[in-house]
Prior knowledge:
With 385 residues, the chain is mainly beta. It is built from 6 helices and 18 strands. The protein has helices at 36-40, 236-243, 247-252, 260-263, 295-303, 323-330; strands at residues 2-6, 19-28, 45-54, 63-74, 83-94, 113-128, 131-143, 154-165, 182-197, 207-220, 224-235, 265-277, 280-291, 305-308, 314-317, 331-340, 350-361, 364-383. It has an 8-stranded antiparallel beta barrel with strand order 1-2-3-4-5-6-7-8. Strands 9-10-11-12-13-16-17-18 form an 8-stranded antiparallel beta barrel.
Amino acid sequence: MQLGKTLEANTDFPETSLQKSLFLSYGSYNFNPKKEWAARLHYPRTGIGIGYTDFGNSEKVGQAISIYPFIEFSILEKKIPNLNLQIGIGTSYTNTQYDVIENPFNRAITTDLNWTFRSFLYYDIFKKNKIDYRFGLGYLHHSNGHTRLPNQGLNSLALSLAAKFDSNQQPEKPKKPHAFSKKSQTYLSWRLGLGQNVLSEVFNSKKEVYSFAMSAGKIINNTFKFGGGFYYRFYEHYYDYINNDGALVEEQLPQFKINPFGYATNFGLFATSELLLGHVGFEFDLGLNIYKPFYQIDWQLNQGYSFENSNGETIVVLGELDWYYEIKRTVSSRMGLKYYLWSTTNSPKHNMYIGAHINANLGQADFTELSIGYTYRFNYKEKEN
């Protein structure tokens, strides 16, 4: 059970009372000493959770049902042995959305299905009859990954009182870590992605983002994957806006009409990190946009606003191309989950995966993406401890 507060997503956001949530989860301790990734990460717990959240205003903000895989680590184990960090990412159904007439002040959620993210610190207070009683403090987020606007997102802070039930058959945690040798492998990887996003509240229909990326790097101890590479993307919304003689192209960047395809593309470099957990990978990328010319128009449309003057005329104010624009134009990020066809525990030379990711400009969602990819491992090296 969780109690918390739904944070205001925008000016004049509907008032909310106490947020109430109920979450149930089922998982495993991963105490198998032969499972290398588990031993390397000090035997984290993994599983799947499902939850119900009432945001504190049934009419204007509503409720959500969430489902997510999670991983839970013991942190500061030597100093605070009962402290744990749980992180989960998945999807949620939200029953109340923004509506320009009926619900204009809730600009947080505009779609039924959304991404959900949760991060909780748990402290096990005491244990009795295979039940751990826990106190938690955490953060929850719901948003649609820029597939419809507005999309300010629902953010919450919450306190939790929980009970964790252990099965009678649960194995004991190994007293000593398994003596795995140090090892590394080089990898090469490519992926193809199909994403969706919207351009602005005026151009609010979903269109595709096509992407391709290649990377190379090291897999350390069959658990930690680090590398770098380049990406290429093509945005249908950008192409159509240029091809249809959008107002800002006509006024500011008429040269875009010479090559709509080229000016609707984006490419850059990225660094990638990933936790390999058997069939599952948790990935985070940080990138540098070398070329994304249309983002100038994207920014002006999304950061601007309009109003009616005293004569009833609509006045449009464009977003300012300031220092923050320069940062968001330059920095990209990507976070999500992969499912590998063959378990990475066995260090397969060839592997395929499917992935689901949120891509962002700095920290603001850009598009939601499904991808398929291939990884090739070689140059295996092992050192004795």
